[in-house]
Amino acid sequence: MSQKNRIIGITERHGIAQEYVNYPPQGYQYEFIDRKPHILSRIVTSSAKGFFKYYEDPEIDIVEAPIFPAHTKQNCIYTPAEFSGTANFGLFGLPLPRNIRLKLIEQVFKRDNFKKILFKSQAGLNTLSTYAGQIDADIRAKCEVVSPCISLPELAPKKAKDDIIILFVGDFFRKGGANVADAFEQLQIKYKHIKLQIIGNTQLDTHNQHLHATYQKKIASNPNIVHTKVTRPELFKNIYPKADIFVSPTYQETFGFAILEAMAFGLPVLSTAHFAIPEIIEDGKSGLLIETQQFDFIRQFKGYHVEKIPSDFHQYMNEQIYLKLEQLIVDETLRKSLSEHARLRCQDKFSTSIRANKMKLIYDDILS
Questions:
Q1: What is the DSSP string of 308-351?
Q2: What is the structure's pLDDT at 2?
Q3: Which of 5, 130, 194, 219 has a CA-to-CA distance to 330 between 20 and 30 Å?
Q4: Per-residue confidence (pLDDT) for residue 135, from 0 to 100
Q5: Rounded CA gap, 367 and 239, in Å?
């Protein structure tokens, strides 16, 4: 008689979680679980929906929270991208000084049932020091890095075609869409066979009305730019497979899962050397990176909305994207090399089996 699988309850349906729930470690299974009403949900408030919500299910062996820390009396694992997100809360809707928030969240992390804090990257783990400073030794002992995983899709041979499709996915301004549109506009003067496909919110993502109107007009008036919003299944079925180059020169990123998805589809990727991205892309081997940390605008960028793009940074990004995209457009051998190494990178560092094996050891240790 086979032994019953232990159950890991997942609190959020984020894309990263949706990927790994299909590949549980041997002896375990994943299930998405719903939050329960609790008085603390009214006391602890956050702009991040789902922050510190309560979870309880007698059928669950471990509660695993992939985005926000969970409130539970059961065995719990938290898998943040970086540490500042753990303290994004107030009390009764009122803000609190950071040192108080950190002290409060430390008390949560020190609980016996709070077993592990698994950062998605070394860059994320480093924020224990850069954001939180002195952290209790017992909490540090619970911390380690477990990378997200991606399954490698079967790739059909690409049909011969005359055009080159450059793909951009995500929040338009935060991920450098303005620079991509500007660079593309200049590149298409020289290269008539290129097209830009933008996938994301068609309303764009800024409160700056002039910025918004400028790029909405630029996109709408260019017949070689298509801007649409699609479902994840549609993205995987019809968008990634037909693209030739993936570009994501992001200003702010806590991991970069869309980049990993594109690499799994064998797309040569152009991005920025921001936060965890250099842990995903080996510059010049499995993708191309643009350095941005020399700009105060990037070092000081907070949140998700871009309200202004400094002219010196804007010009630099436009030039870098133009030059590196031109390399990819004209050099088919480079595209093929980056494509092959991108797939190998996913296989060697971000495979589902690597993550499952690591998580089995962690789950076994918690439940032993």
A1: ---HHHHHHHHHHHHHHHHHHHH-HHHHHHHHHHHHHHHHHHS-
A2: 54
A3: 219
A4: 84
A5: 42
The low-confidence residues of the chain, meaning pLDDT below 70, are 1-2
Confidence (pLDDT) at 133: 82
What single-letter DSSP state applies at residue 237?
A: I
Tell me the fold of 6-149+351-367. Answer: Rossmann fold (3.40.50)
* DSSP type of residue 236: I
Neighbour-count burial of 57, counting CB atoms closer than 10 A to its CB (0-12 exposed, 13-18 middle, 19+ buried):
middle
Nearest in space to 299 (alpha carbons), one of 248, 247, 255, 252? 252
3 state SS of 116 = strand
Q: What is the pTM of this model?
A: 0.93
CB 28 within 8 A of CB 79: no
Query: Which pair of structure tokens corresponds to residue 279?
Result: 């842990």
Residue from 175, 163, 271, 164 nearest 215 by CA: 175
DSSP assignment, residue 284? Answer: T
Q: Which residues have C-beta within 8 Å of that of residue 207, sequence separation ≥ 6? A: 305, 307
Give residue 341's identity as a one-letter amino acid code: H
Of 54, 57, 56, 55, nearest in space to 43 by CA: 54
- State how far the Cα of 88 lies from the Cα of 302, in Å rounded to an integer: 13
Contact 115, 77 (CB under 8 A): yes
Please give the CATH topology (third level) of the domain spanning 164-349. Rossmann fold (3.40.50)
Q: Which residue has the tokens 């799994």?
A: 264
Taking the C-alpha atoms of residue 288 and residue 268, their distance in angstroms, rounded to an integer, is: 8
Domain ranges for the chain, please list them: 6-149+351-367, 164-349
Half-sphere exposure of 81 (CA within 13 A, CB side): 16
Long-range contacts of 14-21 (CB under 8 A, 24+ apart): 14/66, 14/67, 15/232, 15/257, 16/66, 16/120, 16/148, 16/255, 16/257, 17/66, 18/232, 19/148, 19/149, 19/150, 19/151, 19/257, 19/352, 20/148, 20/149, 20/352, 20/355, 20/356
- β-pair type (6-10, 62-65): parallel
- CA–CA distances in Å: residue 37 to residues 31, 52, 71, 106: 19, 12, 11, 23
| Measured distance CA(313)–CA(310) in Å, rounded | 5
